[in-house]
Amino acid sequence: MRVIAKSTLRSFWSKPGHADSAEPLQAWFKVAKNTDWTSWSSVKSSYSTASIVGNCIVFNIGGNKYRLVTRIIYPKHRVYVLKVMTHREYDDYESWQESCGCFKPPPKKHRNKRRS
């Protein structure tokens, strides 16, 4: 899978108080990058604690201390990292679900139309 964007993970573990998330987030990145998830069931077989929230897949990271919100586009083999947060921040659904777009359809792809 192509993981977009590792910089979001790095930004999170670089914040004060989140250094302990670096190792588990890097481990998740390595698994995601080296796998080929084709469906929800293949994700679930890799991460039994993952859950679906709308159109997003949420991973428990670091012994359930952190949450990683992603959107997986299976046919394109892409995982979009939308947000990393503490478990406490995750419990405040209203604050993150809107910004992550978990209940909105995926963006439509735009085609460049050539003019004759």
Main attributes?
116 residues; alpha+beta; YaeB-like fold; five-stranded mixed beta sheet; 5 helices
Structure write-up:
With 116 residues, this protein is of the alpha+beta class. It has one domain: YaeB-like fold. It is 34% helix and 25% strand. It is built from five helices and five strands; from the N terminus they run βαααββββαα. A five-stranded mixed sheet has the order 1-5-4-3-2. β3 and β4 form a beta hairpin. α1 packs antiparallel against α2. The chain starts with a strand and ends in a 16-residue tail after the last helix.
Q: What would a concise description of this structure say?
A:
This protein has 116 residues and is an alpha+beta fold. It has helices spanning 6-13, 22-33, 40-46, 87-91, 93-100, and strands at 2-4, 51-53, 56-61, 66-73, 78-86.
